[in-house]
Amino acid sequence: MRSVRVYHSTMSSSKPAYADYFGRIGEIPLYKKFIQNWREVEKFEARPDDLVIVTYPKSGTTWISEIVCMLYADGDVEKCKKDVIFNRVPYLECRNDQMMNVVQLFFFNLGVKQLKGMASPRIVKSHLPPELLPLSFWEKNCKIIYLARNAKDVAVSYYFFFLMVTANPDPGSFQDFVEKFMDGDVPYGSWYKHTKSWWEKRENPQVLFLFYEDMKEDIRKEVMKLIKFLGKETSDEIVDKIIKHTSFQEMKNNPSTNYETLPDEIMNHKVSPFMRKGIVGDWKNHFTVALNEKFDMHYEQQMKGSTLKFRTEA
């Protein structure tokens, strides 16, 4: 294992206490602001041509969203660059009063409201488990893409996301946060339950289940899966454009995907960039030997009996 850097939160002590920042919908922890809007989310009216992109947080959501946007735009890069990703792919359950107060020009305040005003076909982002996804998506036979990423890299990425999003509570040290992650004491709850519950839906023809690690290994192969699932006819030339435009470096430098259009009051990119590394196996730089052993034991217990398997190295 490579050398490990120790990170500590630099957040102000005036931040709300971690435990006070979240509520629950059933067993699932969510931001209290999101829960205030839950009735609107629950009764959301899907359209038959809606496409839903679902991930556990920090699993490649922006990457898969931009690929799908490019497919819908027939590879037109400039068309996709005309607006930021969180306007093109609204976050269904999001409610962020801070966002509206600081930056009036962004719609990121209320996902349901934003989606209602969009023309079809809509691309919808969500981090909800299948049991909380609005029933209308299932009833209208909407297509759903689920992208899964290995738990260790998710935990690392989630920690840095907590540090750079100013509205988030103090996550404590990296080890503290990983303990919370293992216990499911983070927004959207247990990674284990989330990924397994969507894995159980993989035989449903509405659902395409993809792996982040497979996308990193052979992006063309995974894009072709998307094309087939969406029933599109796409030329090799367009596929080449999509692959180039959605490479990590391209997206990191693209203001419509890197979230750097948001001010520091929302996301402090000086603490950590939103698009940080985009690799498989970065967890090795952050997990100590002891923490890794503890995580592996817990992982084995939680995933016992499941056929869902992940790669944790490139």
Automatic annotation (TrEMBL):
Annotated Gene3D superfamilies: P-loop containing nucleotide triphosphate hydrolases
EC class of the enzyme, as a word: transferase
E.C. designation(s): 2.8.2.-
Keyword Cell inner membrane among record annotations: no
InterPro entries: P-loop_NTPase, Sulfotransferase_dom
One GO-annotated biological process of the protein: sulfation
Primary subcellular site in the record, as a coarse category: cytoplasm
Keywords recorded for this protein, A-Z: Cytoplasm, Transferase
Subcellular location: Cytoplasm
Catalytic activity: 4-ethylphenol + 3'-phosphoadenylyl sulfate = 4-ethylphenyl sulfate + adenosine 3',5'-bisphosphate + H(+)
Pfam families: Sulfotransfer_1
One Gene Ontology MF term: aryl sulfotransferase activity
Single GO cellular component term: cytoplasm
PANTHER family (UniProt xref): SULFOTRANSFERASE SULT
Family: Belongs to the sulfotransferase 1 family.
Protein's name in the database: Sulfotransferase
Originating species: Odocoileus virginianus (White-tailed deer)
Gene: LOC110124832
